[in-house]
Design a protein that fits this description.
The protein has 237 residues and is α+β, with helices and mostly antiparallel strands. The protein has six helices and 15 strands.
């Protein structure tokens, strides 16, 4: 019997967009739920990348570092990655073409999917959110100040998820992808790329397990303004 594929998510993108950026779960506990995923750190401090059961932070200064398990996250999505769909990319292809190829292979656009691409990239364009101090601004305002980085001729891995439109706000609808190079020196939120050759692996999820920070007083008592959430997510992502 095939084991159920579970996407475990702590926090929601909607709450993060509204400025609830305090860490409410440890990296140690997130890693107990899976070996593959993405997110951010307390105070929106850069980009979280989980690959092979290890957690990394793409920082606003362009560095990539391994994380300690006692560090905290306000938002993370993770699964135990066991792909069921695999195909090769044998020639130079940009991100729009790759996204189209992946979309054609999805079991259904009504399901969450874990997405992994390992290969040789002609170019990778990433960003990393800068660390915030209280009082926190809405994430869409922070995104206007985000540092961006480009690296050429790099081998590495794209890590992320496809989210159905129905779940916009729980996560970012469509593709939400991060990148980490094989040398573990460069990584962050993926904005654009050109893939020379690589392997695409996909796993459809059976279940979404949504975890809430019920012991966090700010989350419990904040009245969140969701009025422009869809617009803000599209602008920030």
């Amino acid at each position: 019997m095939t084991k159920e594929a579970i996407l475990y998510q702590h926090g929601t993108l909607g709450a993060l967009m509204a400025g609830l950026m305090d860490g409410t779960e440890t990296i140690a506990n997130i890693l107990k739920k899976g070996d593959f995923g993405i997110g951010t750190l307390s105070g929106l401090d850069g980009e979280l990348i989980i690959l092979g059961g290890k957690a990394y932070q793409g920082r606003e200064d362009g560095a990539l570092i391994a994380l300690y398990e006692d560090q905290e996250t306000p938002y993370a999505a993770v699964t135990t990655f066991k792909p069921t769909i695999t195909f090769q990319v044998e020639q130079l292809t940009d991100n729009l073409k790759i996204n189209t190829l992946i979309r054609e292979q999805l079991k259904s656009e009504n399901l969450f999917h874990a997405i992994k691409i390992h290969g040789k990239f002609k170019k990778v364009h990433i960003r990393a959110m800068p660390k915030q101090e209280k009082p926190y601004k809405r994430l869409v305002e922070v995104s206007k100040e985000q540092p961006e980085f480009i690296k050429e001729d790099v081998t590495g891995t794209i890590v992320g998820f496809f989210t159905p439109e129905l779940f916009q706000g729980v996560a970012a609808a469509d593709f939400h992808l991060h990148f980490i190079d094989d040398d573990q020196t460069f990584g962050g939120h993926l904005m654009d790329f050109e893939l020379e050759t690589g392997t695409v692996e996909i796993e459809p999820m059976d279940s979404l397990l949504q975890h809430f920070p019920k012991n966090d007083e700010t989350f419990i008592h904040t009245e969140i303004d969701y009025a422009d959430l869809n617009k803000e997510i599209k602008e920030a992502e």
